[in-house]
Write a structure and sequence with these properties.
Shape: globular
Radius of gyration: 23 Å
Strand order of the largest sheet: 5-2-1-9-22-21
Number of strands: 28
Largest sheet: 6 strands, mixed
Distance between the termini: 10 Å
Length: 495
């Protein structure tokens, strides 16, 4: 990852260079001995799949001599679908973070990031938040390491773009957007004002669409609040050309290309009516400190580039030396890793055959005869339940079963009262879809439901607070990272 000296997207003077501190202590630490006769299950990752696996196992094996250990870089489960609302100032960060200790009382939490899996020795090596190395022995292993930002070989993207996979990136984006609007108000020239008020989102899938939809409302509110004084903040502030501008780009022919066309058309209609410039069949050719060059030759001056082109499995998967399919760890329908009966995998990192979607006759695909399950929270959550059942079955408790799930529908929050949803295949739009979408999120969250609902009520009644907290710097949330859930620490840029 190139060092972001002089980065224009991070405009604070002290925000562009990583401070130097003494390197942390890295003395290896051996995991403590297990109690006699106790089986240890290690779960790596506490996303949708890992959290559900741990919760289900802790209930199924509550009275057995089994130790369940959850290895995760943070002490919380992150409810990713609501992250755009954090970036838009609707929800406070803690609302979308659910305590692992509180929701998994019978699971031992080990803070750390897995760095290597010794399949022969049945051990997981990790590094804790202070840089100390450790290792965990296991009898059963569940890999639920999730995914990270998908990268494309576009010049300048790794230097000037930011992803949207973790809480640090959402906090950075919220501060950055507020800062750009405030600096635009004091800009001496119209060109600078326009660039600072222009926001480019690449990728019109779930995340990109929601970021653009929520972001446009957020910046319009900021612009309206700053325009109330009689005198303008800067010479160019009152010009109609300097109103916040959001561009949503995707090489696909329509927004939300993975969803039903009716949902796609609803989202497209809402975005355009709100003022978002939706450009399908378009992407960027190069990112620079002053803007982005589109593949049609147009140069868009901007200080903000949000990269939402998709995800890829955690790099740990590639380091295992096992068979993969499109970067995901190949597993059976029972979520077991072939050749390793003690290892299971689920979620975004696993190539799970979708038994509800057989391939057409004559199309062997990956040799399983089925398509792979999409990398969505809906599948990850339900795979966690199956993984828990099958791990327990491998220990003699219950019977193993194959993963099979029919989609129950999708929901996309478009900000305000607008949404697009198709619960059980019934297409909905407008306020009804908005109510269904928020109801679904409250039901799906493993905690914090009352707090989230309270924030939604306050957001409907009161203006949003637009302040810069300055908690996350640009250099601490690089696009090319194996840990988007953790802000990079000073002195550890080589990790």
């Amino acid at each position: 990852m190139p060092h972001p000296h002089g980065r224009r997207f991070a405009v604070q003077a002290d925000d562009t260079q990583e401070p130097h501190v003494q390197a942390p202590r890295t003395t290896p630490r051996e995991d403590g001995p297990r109690r006699d006769g106790v089986t240890r299950i290690v779960i790596v990752g506490a996303g949708f799949a890992g959290h559900r696996t741990a919760r289900a196992l802790s209930r199924t094996l509550a009275k057995e001599r089994v130790e369940i250990v959850l290895l995760n870089p943070t002490d919380y489960f992150l409810y990713l679908p609501l992250l755009p609302q954090v970036a838009a100032g609707i929800l406070e960060p803690r609302r979308v973070t659910v305590s692992l200790v509180h929701t998994l009382p019978r699971v031992r939490l080990v803070l750390g990031e897995a760095t290597q899996v010794d399949l022969a020795g049945h051990r997981v090596h990790y590094t804790d938040p202070e840089g100390t190395r450790g290792e965990l022995a296991y009898d059963r292993l569940v890999l639920a390491v999730g995914s990270v930002n998908k990268l494309l070989p576009v010049p300048g993207v790794s230097e000037y773009a930011h992803g949207f996979r973790g809480l640090p990136e959402a906090l950075y984006l919220r501060d950055h957007v507020v800062r750009q609007v405030e600096l635009a108000g004091a800009a001496p020239h119209a060109e600078e004002c326009v660039a600072r008020c222009t926001f480019v989102v690449v990728g019109a899938g779930y995340t990109g669409t929601e970021v653009a939809a929520q972001g446009k409302i957020f910046t319009d509110d900021l612009h309206a609040q700053m325009s109330r004084p009689k005198e303008p903040f800067g010479p160019a502030w009152r010009s109609p050309d300097t109103r916040p501008r959001w561009l949503l780009l995707d090489i696909a022919p329509r927004v939300l290309p993975e969803l039903d066309r009716r949902l796609s058309e609803t989202a497209d209609r809402v975005l355009r009516a709100r003022g978002v410039e939706v450009r399908t069949g378009t992407s960027i050719k190069e990112a620079t400190p002053d803007g982005v060059l589109l593949d049609d030759g147009e140069f868009v001056p901007t200080r903000t580039l949000v990269w939402c082109v998709g995800v890829r499995p955690d790099p740990l998967v590639a380091d295992l030396g096992l068979s993969v399919d499109r970067g995901r760890l190949r597993v059976t329908a029972e979520l077991n890793v072939p050749g390793h009966p003690e290892v299971f995998a689920c979620g975004d990192a696993a190539a799970v055959p979708d038994l509800t979607r057989p391939l057409p006759p004559g199309d062997d695909g990956d040799g399983t005869g089925y398509e792979l399950t999409p990398m969505t929270a809906q599948h990850a959550t339900r795979q966690g339940d199956v993984a828990a059942d099958n791990v327990a079955a491998s220990l003699g408790y219950g019977t193993a079963r194959a993963y099979r799930h029919h989609d129950l529908g999708f929901a996309v929050d478009l900000g305000g009262v607008q949404a697009a949803a198709n619960p059980l295949g019934v297409p909905l739009s407008g306020p009804l879809a908005g109510a269904v979408t928020r109801g679904y999120h409250l039901a799906a969250m493993p905690g914090n439901r009352i707090r989230v609902a309270a924030d939604w009520l306050l957001e409907a009644a009161l203006p949003r607070q637009a302040v810069q907290l300055g908690l996350v710097s640009s250099w601490s949330v690089p696009l090319d990272t194996s840990s988007p859930e953790v802000a990079r620490l000073p002195g550890r840029s080589g990790e």
